[in-house]
Amino acid sequence: MAAESGGKIDPMHQFLIEPVLGRHWVVGGYDLSFTNSALWMVVTLAALWIFMIGGMKRDLVPGRWQAAVEGFTGFVNSMLTSNIGPEGKRFLPYVFSLFMFILFANVLGLLPFGVVPGVHPFTVTSHVTVTGVLALISFAIVLIVGFGRHGFHFFALFVPHGTPKLMIPLIFVVELMSFLVRPFSLGLRLFVAMTAGHILLKVLAAFVINGINMGPGYAVLITLPSFLLMIGITLLELLVAAIQAYVFALLTSVYLNDAVNLH
Amino acid sequence: MDAEAAKLIGAGLAAIGMGIASLGVGNVFAKFLEGALRNPGAADSQQGRLFIGFAGAELLGLLAFVTMIILVFVA
């Protein structure tokens, strides 16, 4: 899981991006290698594809697989309709792909592939480049929808109804700030939640390994409690993986609601 | 005090922020449960707002974590 470097176990090594076959492919000064990050995005996409293809049937009485897929689509659909209203259906393809990609990437990063020597899972969403781009796509869609539907009237979003005339310049600036900070907080939340969880897991894993190495007394004193705590934290991380995917999709739909309906 | 020690002390102080944010997250769920037990019929429709509040409270704790990481690994 964590790489050994000079007797100490380095919990940050798992976030290192490196070419899959160990060879860089540089074109015109840019490194275009197929990295482990790209590999795990493809794995996520393949898993998602298999899941959807296997369940997208039109049986009147759904089997288990179809019921699972319908559960996910129904969940995202009801989230959109309750937040945006009947027009929310138009955004179902985007928010559904977003939710499923983040959920699958989070969960795949937690799988214990580390038991195979030389292989370790890579959490795509633990890098701010990935989550930041996802957040920017959401923000761009909000801007396009907002300006497309309302034109410059979209700026009314920054002046809530009933604001006293005197307060309008101040409120406008404050609301604009809170609007502009949205993609930042959206991307940062997912990235930090995944990074923090994985660092915690690797630090506990280091306690387990070092406790065994220090002899049987320490193994009972350190390894056993750390291992039990690690099992609990792993379960908590599974919960966090689902909650973060849900929160990302939920906040995207709340922001889309602002763009569609103003307020 | 040399700069390295000051950085590590600052990182430790930033960890307090995460503890305080945990109070906030606990408060969000506690108040939701309190309200939900008084009026279970309205609870399901407010679950989205529950998670928006949770996300806001959690983000501030995560910012403390970011401060910590920046102090230890970047600054």
TrEMBL record, chain A:
GO terms for cellular component: plasma membrane; proton-transporting ATP synthase complex. SUPFAM superfamilies: F1F0 ATP synthase subunit A. It is found in: Cell membrane; Membrane. The keyword Cell membrane applies. GO terms for molecular function: proton-transporting ATP synthase activity, rotational mechanism. It is a multi-pass membrane protein. InterPro entries: ATP_synth_F0_asu, ATP_synth_F0_asu_bact/mt, F0_ATP_A_sf. The chain crosses the membrane at residues 38-56, 91-113, 133-159, 190-209, 221-247. CDD domains: ATP-synt_Fo_a_6. Its main location: membrane. Keywords: ATP synthesis, Cell membrane, CF(0), Hydrogen ion transport, Ion transport, Membrane, Transmembrane, Transmembrane helix, Transport. It comes from the Bacteria. It holds the Pfam family ATP-synt_A. PANTHER family: ATP SYNTHASE SUBUNIT A. Key component of the proton channel; it plays a direct role in the translocation of protons across the membrane. Belongs to the ATPase A chain family. This is ATP synthase subunit a. It comes from Sphingomonas zeae. The gene is atpB.
UniProtKB/TrEMBL annotation, chain B:
The keyword Mitochondrion does not apply. Its main location: membrane. It is a multi-pass membrane protein. SUPFAM superfamilies: F1F0 ATP synthase subunit C. Keywords: ATP synthesis, Cell membrane, CF(0), Hydrogen ion transport, Ion transport, Lipid-binding, Membrane, Transmembrane, Transmembrane helix, Transport. The keyword Transmembrane helix applies. One of its GO terms (molecular function) is proton-transporting ATP synthase activity, rotational mechanism. GO terms for cellular component: plasma membrane; proton-transporting ATP synthase complex; proton-transporting two-sector ATPase complex, proton-transporting domain. The chain crosses the membrane at residues 6-29, 50-74. Belongs to the ATPase C chain family. F(1)F(0) ATP synthase produces ATP from ADP in the presence of a proton or sodium gradient. F-type ATPases consist of two structural domains, F(1) containing the extramembraneous catalytic core and F(0) containing the membrane proton channel, linked together by a central stalk and a peripheral stalk. During catalysis, ATP synthesis in the catalytic domain of F(1) is coupled via a rotary mechanism of the central stalk subunits to proton translocation. Key component of the F(0) channel; it plays a direct role in translocation across the membrane. A homomeric c-ring of between 10-14 subunits forms the central stalk rotor element with the F(1) delta and epsilon subunits. NCBIfam families: PRK07558.1. This is ATP synthase subunit c. It comes from Sphingomonas parapaucimobilis NBRC 15100. The lineage of its organism: Bacteria, Pseudomonadati, Pseudomonadota, Alphaproteobacteria, Sphingomonadales.
